[in-house]
Amino acid sequence: MVDFGAxxxxxALFGAVxxxxxxxxDPDLLTxxxxxAIRNADAVLADTRELLELLRHPAVNYDITGLVTSFDxxxxxxxxxxxxxxxxxxxxxxxxxxxxxxxxxDPFLDAGVSEEAAACVRAGASFxxxxxxxxxxxxxxxxxxxxxxxxxxxxxxARGGFDDPRARFWGFAGTLVMWCPxxxxxxxxxxxxxxxxxxxxxxxVTMRGGTTExxxxxxxxxxxxxxxxxxxxxxxxxVVMGNAAAVPRDELDWFETKPLFGWKVLVPRTKDLATxxxxxxxxxxxxxQEVATISVERPRTPHQMDKAVxxxxxxxxxxxxxxxxxxxxxxxxxxxEYGLDARAFxxxxxxxxxxxAAEALKxxxxxxxxxxxxxxxxxxxxxxxxxxxxxxxxxRVLVPRADIAIETLTAGLVQLGWxxxxxxxxxxxxxxxxxxxxxEGIKGGTYxxxxxxxxxxxxxxxxxxxxxxxxxxxxxxxxxxxxSCQEHGLRVDVLANDPSGVxxxxxxxxxxxxxxxxxxxxxxxxxxxxxxxxxxxxxx
Length: 540
Hints:
Blueprint: H1 4-13, E1 16-21, H2 32-39, E2 43-46, H3 49-52, E3 67-70, H4 82-93, E4 99-103, H5 107-111, H6 114-122, E5 126-130, H7 135-142, E6 153-157, E7 175-181, H8 185-194, E8 202-207, E9 215-220, H9 224-227, E10 236-241, H10 243-246, E11 264-270, H11 276-283, E12 287-297, H12 303-314, E13 319-322, H13 325-337, E14 349-352, H14 355-363, H15 377-383, E15 396-402, H16 408-415, E16 419-430, H17 436-444, E17 449-452, H18 455-465, E18 473-476, H19 479-487, E19 494-495, H20 501-521, H21 529-539
Parallel strand pairs: 1-4, 1-5, 2-3, 2-4, 6-7, 11-12, 11-17, 13-14, 13-15, 15-16, 17-18, 18-19
Antiparallel strand pairs: 7-10, 8-9, 8-10, 12-16
Helix pairs in contact: 4-6, 11-20, 13-14, 15-16, 18-19
């Protein structure tokens, strides 16, 4: 019989634990339920540090204010029992907190967290499960294997030994799909051979499946262990043996042939500002290393912004023109200090120079009245209306900007007949240098490309991190940025046709695709720029 009184007391003491399946590694495979569970969590616990990177995905955008940690952190040791993990999870849920417990794949299939969940219940905490995309089916698809075309498929998970009753499945005549630690590959081979499978049958083995570091090797059952030499013993590998592994993958290998697959791309950015460019690059298969070049801080004195906010509330302006997402955030923070929200913009006309400013406004609940096709102040001026005394009751425009902003917009608005109040909404300072590993990688040619989205990012990047290696592909968002690159001794390989972050990512992808085609037509190996650097070093 359930003691409902005791259960009610437990619910008051503990919050809810949600086991969130995160899929094979591609953050875009998070379900809507997974995103909701993470965003609403008071604490996030993950099996690995890699899973915590999901918190930075634009769809999640988790506001890290509570406990965020992984079980492979040094504080917890190298390996933990389900009971030990449950103890930490229950403690995180104490006081009614909601805990998102992140696991790879599907919680009850791939992650094997049933023991941990049961231990949470025994400790008095309830749990829920958000199913995730299963590793067993997703990784083969990311490797270009059409399991539906196979003549029968058997799935297996080999966490423990290979001599249990499930061994009878090893002799299955069709396609066998399974995962296991790389260190158990020789045991896998022996179990399969003992069950009657042919040593020479084709095998596909995939490492780091579903990530931009994925690598799939075509081999045979008896050569499986040899193909994994150099792979960490505890690394999870996915194995497909049998009929499906024998089918050529040339036409179906969609993931590992993306234009920027495996490219390590440097993205100099404003500190703590996620960009659509990074998401676009990852969609092309790139591994992005963001490097903070500018730190955005509040103005040294608040007087200008205080006066501007009062003017907005009192109806002293006809227009507000935002030139960046940072300008929107600067004004929003000042509004929140006064206990105001987006409703204070009622009756005002709002302009946004570019998608970043427009998206920041929409996130605040404000739909801009004017968004030009281009991303610059010049594009905004081209579309901005002239002052008309018969149509405009007020002739003043507020322009919140950076402390070092060029006054092109202000001068242009004045020429259009407007009175302009340009105020410092935020100031920019050079960020601290990246860590030593990143700096050495930049100078040593570890990275395949670097993308510059403004002249200031060029100056600050070179100032804090040095010049990238000559083999690193340099991409610039427009002519002014390209000129800054050249002034700092950098060769510009890619120039975006569309002066936006997404346009810059597209331009790099097109460059990489053309480069790949050229290498194939010349009969050369398709190597990334960083790989060619390492090859030269090896030759020397």
